[in-house]
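Section 4.2 – Deliverable D4.2 (structural model, holo form)

The reporting period included a commitment to supply a predicted holo structure for the target in complex with IPE. Inputs used:
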Amino acid sequence: MHIAVIMDGNGRWASRRHLPRSAGHRAGARAVDAVVEAAVRHGITTLTLYAFSAANWSRPAAEVSALFTLLRRHLLTQTQRCVDRSVRINVIGRRDRLPPGLCREIERSEQATAHCNRMHLRIAVDYSSQHSLLEACRRLQSEPGIDRARFAERLADVDHALAPAPEVDLLIRTGGEQRLSDFLLWECAYAELYFAEALWPDFDQQAFRHALAAYRHRERRFGRIVADTLATANHG
Ligand code: IPE
Ligand code: IPE
Ligand code: MG
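Output (structure tokens):
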């Protein structure tokens, strides 16, 4: 099962406490640990977290740099925990605009966890789905015979993904907004969408369990008609 999360609401969490936005991002980083742990425990095979969108470059430079510092520190301190839990780390998105120190830390974390196979933890940084889709199309122009599998491979190359991602089963967005903000547009074609009011730093293991429970009650039809409608149609 592939779960993707748009971790939104750090800034509001901080302003409600009269704290700087960076404090909200620090609290958000703590929430990441809890959710990763819960995902491993629930047997999730792929977890993709949206940490920094390409559009987030338009925030004040100080906030952007605080986010990158946090991310770097997170990778530094969490990589060993990931090895212990057999969680493989992969940062997806552009790398050409990231600070070199962060790129080095990303490569170190990916190498250190390359043998881990319990859960695949993908962290989207400087990510824009539209950019990735366009770039994949551009690279395919010179190749004969585009098909779905080849397209997914090019998309993975563009994203620095280790392999084409399985389709997203459940997309969770915290913070109350109901939009995709340019996240995994191809991979979410048939995702179930779950919007939580909780701000990301407040999204704990129990909230994660609630999202999973809601998902289990969804009926995924993929264009088919439901089983009892089918029975009625056949007999009626
Ligand atoms: C999500 O929280 C984290 C990032 C986008 C990096 P926000 O920073 O967007 O928090 P709000 O939406 O302003 O509350
Ligand atoms: C989406 O949140 C990006 C991340 C969570 C990293 P934003 O707060 O940037 O999205 P918008 O601006 O509300 O669409
Ligand atoms: Mg936001």
